[in-house]
Amino acid sequence: MRAMRAETFSGYDGLKLVELPKPAIADGKVLVRMTAAGVTPLDHTILSGKFHGSKAPLILGNEGAGMVEMGGGTEFPVGSRVMFFGAYGAFEDGTDREWVAVRKEDLCLIPDNVEDVSAAGIPVAYLTAQVALTLAGFRAGKTVLAPAIGGSIGNAVTQLARALGAKHAISSTTNHAKAEQAKALGFNEVIDTSSEKLGDGVRRITGGHGADIVIDGIGGDVLSEELGALALEGRVITLGYSASRTTTIDVTNLIAPQAGIQGLNMFVQPKTAITSAWKVIVSLLKAGAIKPIVAKTFPLEEAPSALRYLVEGRPFGRVVLTI
User: Fold this and answer.
1) Were 316 and a residue from 69, 84, 150, 193 both cysteine, which residue would form a disulfide, CB within 3.0 to 4.6 Å?
2) Structural domain includes residue 233
3) How far apart are CA 50 and CA 121, in angstroms?
4) What is the percent of the chain with per-residue pLDDT over 90, rounded to a whole number?
5) Beta bridge partners of 299
6) Is there a single domain that holds both residue 204 and residue 137?
7) Whether pLDDT at 27 is above 90
8) What are the pLDDT digits (tens) for 256-290?
């Protein structure tokens, strides 16, 4: 089978198209013929040698979609379309290949109204978003802030919060063109930080209330700014660091509103949390209340270009490999 493998963690040039044996299934795993794989910032972090625990050579990709070929039983019969997420592509070989042996508990049936390319970009973004919202104590009527409307987490959180009854589902962008694109797609509470500070935008939209919940996948100075936009007893869930791993915190932004900040690592979440999140996501997908946005697709052999486009092109929406 064809696979795109990181032979070394040395940047884009470390990715090579190789021929490998088709995986055998054992220990209750399910053989999935891949049709599409999501490209994520984690791929770049690993390929840059900046992720703990990953070892080369490694097939990247920790989410994807495909068709069950063997081992799915009555729950996932042969021919079923499935999507999944897990430790694939980080601590074991991932989804950037033609076949993957997947743990049955990681699988989710793809709704009939969702195409494989869209499904491949659902698991990481929407599972992370829903688990984060639950961890933060989200309920209808709350105000949610998730920066970076064009990014996977920011967009997924905004869509989920809006669909689940948030009073305000706020996001942001540093690019005026993206702000206009977001508006054209129906995202009407997006702060253009090229012309307005994040905290000022949140206070304007909320009438001075602030954000009850912040889901941060950016880190760096953005995280610091978010803390200044919190409402009384606000909650921040931090789960990414695409801007930077370091920031400066004004502790009074936590003390004055009696706010809290907590980290989220999706690789250590209990199965019950993932199962509950999938139920919410699938229901909303079937109803058309949320819809993944795919910016561009690339064939498997162009995986280095796909990752470069994601990281350097900063598109609005997901980047997906077709296999």
Assistant:
1) 150
2) yes
3) 23
4) 97
5) 322
6) yes
7) no
8) 999 999 999 999 999 999 999 999 999 999 999 99
How far apart CA 242 and CA 219 sit, in angstroms, is 7
CA dihedral in degrees (180, 182, 187, 188; nearest 10)?
-10
Q: What is the pLDDT of residues 160-170, one digit of tens each?
A: 999 999 999 99
Q: State the Cα–Cα distance between residues 201 and 123, nearest whole angstrom.
A: 30
Question: What single-letter amino acid sits at 130?
Answer: Q
| Residue whose C-alpha is closest to residue 193's, from 216, 222, 224 | 222
Bond prior to 304 in cis (omega within 30° of 0):
no
**What are 81's two structure tokens?**
């379309």
Q: Which residues span the domain enclosing 256?
A: 125-267
d(CA 270, CA 265): 11
Asked if 46 and 307 count as a contact pair (C-beta separation under 8 A), the reply is no
Kindly calculate the radius of gyration of the chain based on its CA atoms and give it in whole angstroms: 19
Please give the tally of structural domains in the chain.
Answer: 2
Specify the 3-state DSSP secondary structure of 65.
strand
Report d(CA 256, CA 229) in Å as an integer: 12
Do 133 and 260 fall into the same domain?
A: yes
DSSP H helices in 136-270: 152-163, 176-184, 198-206, 220-227, 252-255
Which residue carries 């999935």 as its tokens?
32
DSSP assignment, residue 267? Answer: G
pLDDT, residue 296, reads: 98
**First-residue to last-residue Cα distance in the chain:** 11
Q: What share of the chain has pLDDT > 70, as a percent?
A: 100
CATH code for the domain of 130: 3.40.50.720
The C-alpha atoms of residue 65 and residue 117 are separated, in whole angstroms, by 7
Main-chain phi, psi angles of 182, to 5 degrees? -60, -45
Three-state DSSP class for residue 247 = coil
Q: How buried is residue 69: exposed, middle or buried, by Cβ count under 10 Å (0-12/13-18/19+)? A: middle
